[in-house]
Amino acid sequence: MSTPIVVVAYNRPRSLSRLLQSVSEAIYSHKEIDLIISIDRADNNQEVFKIAEDFKWEFGFKKVVYQETNLGLRKHILKCGDLSLKYGSVIVLEDDLFVSPNFYLFAEQALKFSKREPRIGGISLYCHQLNVHTRQNFKALEDGFDNWYFQFASSWGQAWTKDQWEGFMAWYAENPDIDNIEKVPRYVRSWSPKSWLKYNITYLIEKNNYFLYPRVAVATNFSDAGTHVGNDSTIYQVPLDYATNKKYRFSSLCEAKAIYDSFYESEVLYESLGIGKDEVCIDLYGCKSNSHERYLLTSKLLNHKIIRSYGKSLKPHEDNVIRGIEGNELFLYDTAIDVQNPNKHRWDRDVSYNYKQIPFRTVRKLFIEQAFGKVQNLKRKIFKKRRK
Questions:
Q1: Per-residue pLDDT tens over the stretch 65-122
Q2: Is the dihedral of CA 271, 273, 278, 280 positive or negative?
Q3: How far apart are CA 341 and CA 156, in angstroms?
Q4: Which of 23, 88, 122, 312 has the lowest tally of Cβ within 10 angstroms?
């Protein structure tokens, strides 16, 4: 059966309308594709239901499912993922997304390819350009393929085969307690219990599996205000793929050079360092708090013996280690030997590395606006106290 498109909606009519418009403008190889619009129950989503009912779908059968009770996001996504058991695979899109015309072609080809790779746990339609743990820029190493691998499941457009979903749900059925698993990033563990994504990420880490990501995104995220987002934001917007007649060339995990753990750290660096994976911790972003390995590759200034040091000029930053760029910004330490570190942190280098240039007028304007806002808030507090 053809892979269905499942749109997950709740109470954001503008978001749903925008997503469905982008879905209708996508390229499809045939007209036997089911579109399922699943709406979680709420007191104020009559407009959402009407948009779903009125939407014209020309590429197959459309079904609107209105949940009998309010499931919440976690149960809702899991219920939608279960459709892979019926169809053999599934594409899931939350309502604040927007898709490229190529999203279905990419998902189809990636799902087919992933059946040969047992360590692929799912397909992402989104492509990260920001490290969510540190808010620093991120870009996967270019290795000539149309994909890269990330031990981090996606919630901003994703697809699963039946086997990938069954593997996750078998693990999930064991009611895993993930709060104390040190291998899982602290930021991920801090997410609300309503999050299904934190469990899918933990599953990948525990099983040493990966999501396959596109080199250029075929879905992007508007981050519209809703249940879990306070304000609209463009922070997670990324460029979309508009190539024509695209036949994607995927790397296997054996040949890929762009493979990243759940902290956005490159896993090809173990080979470059010539040190076993169980002996060295790679922490170039400096956000792994509990490393037990003897050797540590990091951007942090620590008082340990420096075995090797590198500059931080090439992008992405792991390329400085791969190519052996000289400098004193990235350090390989022997943590068993304590020695005073003679180097100093250069904040100007950090800023210039992450941002091409920030105009002085922009900085001044932001500073003035922030200062003015603080003064206004202080005046309000004083006025309230006087009224009391």
A1: 999 999 999 999 999 999 999 999 999 999 999 999 999 999 999 999 999 999 999 9
A2: negative
A3: 42
A4: 88
Shared-domain flag, residues 171 and 192: yes
Number of domains in the chain: 3
CATH number of the domain that residue 22 is part of: 3.90.550.10
Whether the CB-CB separation of 294 and 279 falls below 8 Å is answered with: yes
Q: How many residues appear in the chain? A: 388
pTM over 0.85: yes
Band the pLDDT of 349: cuts 50, 70, 90: confident
Nearest C-alpha neighbor of 241 from the set 102, 336, 73, 120 = 102
Q: Do residues 207 and 273 share a domain?
A: no
HSE of 265, CA atoms in CB hemisphere, 13 A: 22
DSSP state of 123: E
Cβ contact 175:278 at 8 Å: no
The predicted-structure confidence for 15-42, as pLDDT tens digits, reads as follows 999 999 999 999 998 999 999 999 999 9
